[in-house]
Amino acid sequence: MSGWLWFKDRFSSSEIHNHAFSKILRSFNTNYQEIQLIDSISFGKMLLIDGDVQSSLFDEYIYHESLVLPGLMSCSCSPTKVFLCGGGEGATLREILRCKTLESVIKCDIDQEAIQMYMEELPEWHQGSFFDPRVTLIHMDARKLLEEQEDQSFDAIYTDLTEPVNGGPSQMLYSKEFFSICKSKLNPNGFLVAQGSLLRINTFEMHASIIKTMKEVFPIVRSYAVYVPSFDTTWGFAFASLEADPLAFDAQEINLRIQKRLSGKLRYYDGIAHQHIFSLGKDLREKLNSSGSIITDHLPFSLKKKSDL
What we know:
By secondary structure, the chain is an alpha/beta fold. The protein is globular. The strands form 2 sheets. A 7-stranded mixed sheet has the order 8-7-6-9-10-12-11, with helices on both faces. It has helices at residues 60-74, 91-96, 112-121, 123-126, 142-148, 176-185, 205-214, 251-261, 271-277, 282-290; strands spanning 5-12, 15-29, 34-40, 44-49, 52-56, 81-86, 104-108, 135-138, 154-160, 186-198, 220-228, 233-241. Helix content is 29%, strand content 30%. It has 10 helices and 12 strands. The chain folds into 2 domains: 5-54, Roll (Spermidine Synthase, Chain: A, domain 2); 60-308, 3-Layer(aba) Sandwich (Rossmann fold). The longest helix is centred in the first third of the chain and has 15 residues, at 60-74. Strand 2 (15-29) and strand 3 (34-40) form a beta hairpin. Helix 8 packs across helix 9.
């Protein structure tokens, strides 16, 4: 223990979670973010961006299966065309590629330098997904690229983005205007899923605002959450659609759809897990119903970088 180094994951000015690690595997700055790859004692290889834990080798599958698979199981038909905003490590892409009917997926990530590092250093995450022939990889602003697509081009849109820190590249991809763009690019039975930040009874404001903003655009909006050990918190996701509702299915139906629609072996998600992640406690539901503000381009949600707390 005396030889360990320590990384401080700052949740606020009064709350810090410490991670012991043995060494820094990579550390560099791109034009958009500060990236570090460390060898964590508890969680193995761990990716940090701007002082914020993004994922770890030990438990990344919990986050990525939860982000991607509930939507794929909830829509009325299995998707063929998908648009992914962000999802740097390639693990979100990996889960999308499980869909047996998938024909094409556009993955748009603005930070090409980071993506190159992930290709080289995180093969356990992407498992070759970057190189799948169904994938088109583009490096530019995802909102601009999505705007350029024809209306009703996609069955699903995923946003797996960094937090909307002040002046960061993701800040304009959480607004009502952006969600309206997403709606116009979705087929009538399509859906949108966004990573929705921390979701716990003392840190829920951003998630509440995402949900409230989505409800301005979509008739069906659902919060769900999963505990990710390396984050040491329950993490939120936001589902939105014109007609699909993930609450409409029991565990048995979800398991049948998994068998029919997905390839490969899952580690976390199944019918029971589906019911679990959509079952938020009464206290949290009340906070979400009474909180949040509508995010717009002119009134964006703004967070400090964890390294600045």
